[in-house]
Amino acid sequence: MAEYTIVTDSTTDLPPSLVKELGLKVIPLCYIMEGKNYLNIPGGGAMAEPTFYQKLRNGATSTTTQVNSEEFIAEFTPILERGEDVLYIAFSSGLSGTCQSAYVAKQQLEQSFPQRRIEIFDSLCASMGEGLFVYLAASQKNRGASLDEVLDWMKENVQKLCHWFTVDDLNHLKRGGRISTATALVGTMLGIKPVMHVDGEGHLIPVSKVRGRKQSLDALVKRMQETAINPAEQTVFISHGDCLADAEYVANEVRAKLGVQKIVINFIGPVIGAHSGPGTVALFFLGRER
Question: 160-286 has which CATH code?
Fold first, then answer.
């Protein structure tokens, strides 16, 4: 069985310890803030996550860029040169053009390395939803699964990776074109918090609205109660936009109401956080459907 390396994006928002444990190659996306370019590296990189979110609270804005095909070629080539195949698990094509750039790189590299395999899998996931999907796939690999076996597992489970989240500040969704100015204004005045998810095509979709922060956090847990598969046996991921106490509230509710034992909590990184803003909380798990 040929050796292979799992490659993914920094939009997985995985902590560095898990990246190392799983043996992943992580390609950083870039964000621009206050006229400077930063790489979104696991663990924060040149700008720590709390600093990033404090700048957003103070009125700074951030834009993001996708990985281009030349960068993918540079990242994939050393793996191929040492005789390994590549399995790239991509940030949702419904949210970024990064996956398409990887396909362009694959076509070029296959001409130079005809004896090697380059497999690209669109996770249709984001943030630690992508992270959980990669974690589960890499766990299969580390238990001895072949590249084809991991691909089969991903095809079977990609539509079961549930993303549920809520935001505290509607203005970031307004800037990203997710909601209208009027909706943001009225929602802010009334204390309305949206409950959203990533759908089966990898797009960000508003699902419902609740009034008040606690109710929005409880709504995430309720969604898990409705659809989770064997929750007590799962590893659950929770990401947050510099609001650890709220993430821990969700974690405690998930433990109490669903018997979950293993929970990983981490920051939403700057590339996702540029669009979701401070105060975002997201819950990720396997369910019967997204």
Answer: 3.30.1180.10
Q: Which is nearest to 31 in space by CA: 49, 14, 5?
A: 49
Q: Is the pLDDT of residue 86 over 90?
A: yes
In the 3-class helix/strand/coil scheme, how is the chain assigned residue by residue? CCCEEEEEEHHHCCCHHHHHHHCCEEECEEEEECCEEEEECCCCCCCCHHHHHHHHHCCCCEEEECCCHHHHHHHHHHHHHCCCEEEEEECCCCCCCHHHHHHHHHHHHHHHCCCCCEEEEECCCCHHHHHHHHHHHHHHHHCCCCHHHHHHHHHHHHHHEEEEEECCCHHHHHHCCCCCHHHHHHHHHHCEEEEEEECCCCCEEEEEEEECHHHHHHHHHHHHHHHECCHHHCEEEEEECCCHHHHHHHHHHHHHHHCCCEEEEEECCHHHHHHHCCCCEEEEEEECCC
Distance CA 69, CA 63 (A): 20
pLDDT category at 238 given cuts 50, 70, 90 is very high
- pLDDT above 90 as % of the chain: 84
> Domain spans of the chain?
4-157, 160-286
Mean pLDDT of 256-270: 97
Q: Options 3.40.50.10170, 3.40.50.2300, 3.20.20.300, 3.10.450.50; which CATH number does 4-157 get? A: 3.40.50.10170
Average pLDDT, the chain: 93
Tens digits of per-residue pLDDT, 52-84? 999 999 999 999 999 999 999 999 999 999 999
Statement: residue 34 has pLDDT above 60:
yes
